[in-house]
Amino acid sequence: MSSTNKARAYWKENIKYLAILLSIWFVVSYGCGILFRDALNTINLGGFKLGFWFAQQGSIYVFVVLIFVYVRLMNKLDKKYGYHED
Amino acid sequence: MSVQTWTWILVGVTFALYFGIAIWARAGSTKDFYVAGGGVSPLANGMATAADWMSAASFISMAGIISFAGYDGSVYLMGWTGGYVLLALLLAPYLRKFGKFTVPDFIGDRYYSNSARTVAVICALIVSFTYVAGQMRGVGIVFSQFLQVDITLGVIIGMAVVLVFAFLGGMKGITYTQVAQYCVLIFAFMVPAIFISIQMTGNIIPQVGMGGTLEDGTYLLDKLDTLHTELGFKEYTQGSKSTWDVFAITFALMVGTAGLPHVIVRFFTVPKVKDARKSAGLALLFIAILYITAPAVAVFSRTNLIETVRDQSYTDIPEWFKNWEDTGLIAWSDKNGDGKIQYVQGSALVGKKPEFLEGRGVYGERLISNASDATNELYVDRDIMVLANPEIAGLPNWVIALVAAGGLAAALSTAAGLLLVISTSISHDLIKKQLKPNISDKGELRWARASILVAIVIAGLFGIYPPGFVAAVVALAFGLAAASFFPAIILGIFDKRMNKQGAVAGMVVGITLMLGYMIVYKTGLIGIMDPLPPSDWWFGTSPEGFGTIAMCVNVVVSLVVSRMTPKPPKDVTDMVENIRIPSGAGEAAQH
Known about the structure:
The structure holds two protein chains of two kinds.
Chain A: H1 3-35, H2 37-40, E1 44-45, E2 48-49, H3 50-80
Antiparallel strand pairs in A: 1-2
Helix pairs in contact in A: 1-3
Chain B: H1 3-24, H2 30-35, H3 42-53, H4 56-69, H5 74-98, H6 103-110, H7 114-147, H8 151-201, H9 206-209, H10 220-231, H11 243-259, H12 261-264, H13 273-309, H14 319-326, E1 330-332, E2 356-360, E3 366-368, E4 378-380, H15 384-387, H16 389-392, H17 397-435, H18 441-464, H19 469-483, H20 485-494, H21 500-523, H22 546-564, H23 570-579
Antiparallel strand pairs in B: 1-4, 2-3
């Protein structure tokens, strides 16, 4: 692969990861925590109404996990294309 | 030992620690001063970013705001954490690869234009100054509440402390002091939260305790919803803002967070692109510890407050109530003359703050002159929820003192980070890049130190004489950052076709629209017009949420204008391709 093609392929995969991760980001916060909270509030998680829990707790846990998943995915991708530095 | 003695000891010890670190981490070059030599480990950078980010407002006010706003408070929780996902995925790695010192550096180079750089410098200065004024005020308030020091003297002490570690060490000194400050503030926040969780729900983890049961077996949140309904408030878990407005505010806060210059600049301090990603994750992890605890504290303290004061005779009220009444954060007027505290929905006062009269009432309460006609008799300042929490729960004196030390750590660390952005904007973006390009490294360092000195004095003056608009504008700083920086940076990385004309047009339209909306609906123009009422808001969007709309307009304008004007030059598109690839970041020093 020429270096331009390689860079292009790397960028494409990167964008794919971003699209997936940001969709999850959107769904947990704006979806579960805001738009669909009334529906989710009919479900209880211990003492929490589920929509309320997503808005004040759940979305934040997911955010943290998302970034670390991204770090892992990108480290692998960097290795695959030989862009890693150790 | 008394609370005061404990407070002096803890504040003294933590300050001595900060000084020690400052002397150890002196800066020798501009690279040390701007980006801590570019050699900070991701872990240390994560902690420092967290301390930088969590201001006096996060530490002292946020739990209180949530406590009174219930579900509506979620906008801050999601907004101020979700922004880090955007930062980690869309900005930090690429800006690190770009490898210079500041946000205006990126805007100026990517859009091959000194006017774009100047617009960015001005935005950075506006955002940072409004923000830092609030921090200095916060320092003053902590000193006056806990140590009975005059606010002015408190601000001056705070200025002196920041001066030592920012002036000597620049980013290097600030980064390592912030690591220490993070540890102090998170410990100070967690200890009372854990104690109270055990007291109320028997659970050692506040996040679990929040969804736990009380002694009588009812769920805490159900109990709080019932209390709220009985007193005429909206249910705690429901809130009263419209779904659209919650959406808009959350989005504006997230995007604004990712666009704040003092946060972005953090990711220039780590050695590699890989480290920038990891460090953003660690930063969010450290921030999240406080942000998932705050809503639990909010629920505990809200329930505690209602149960303690509701229909209670003033003469039987616990000691802490009277202490905070003395500082003016609580006020009660016995409107129906029964000697009991009626706490229900409605404002107890005409205006925002109680105006106290000389002398005491029949029960020994402080008299106020601006009681309203509403049934509600009690005014409670939201900040009390964190400050008085340990006292309300009857925790030992050293825990109360710890909260003071934590509040100071939060305020000082954020102030230092912002002051550095201000000084960098002046010495690097203005003097080195525009006025005196041939200045030596030593000369630039002198300018950097001189401008930090001036910035501290100005920030201190804002803290001592707070202009009325500061409080209103701090909340809107996020909207401004969202409407200006964020689209310009994102499009600069992800849209190769984006050019100077598009970006400048977008930034100018975005920030003008945002400022206009702020003035019309929030601040008004002093002496000319009052702000228009919420019924006139566009699509029911509050000024806090308007950043979302202004940002979308910015993006559309940028895209349209860029497609109608010439392509960016070849060397700029080459640069964009280069920053998309992580390897070869080098040091953040190439001029």
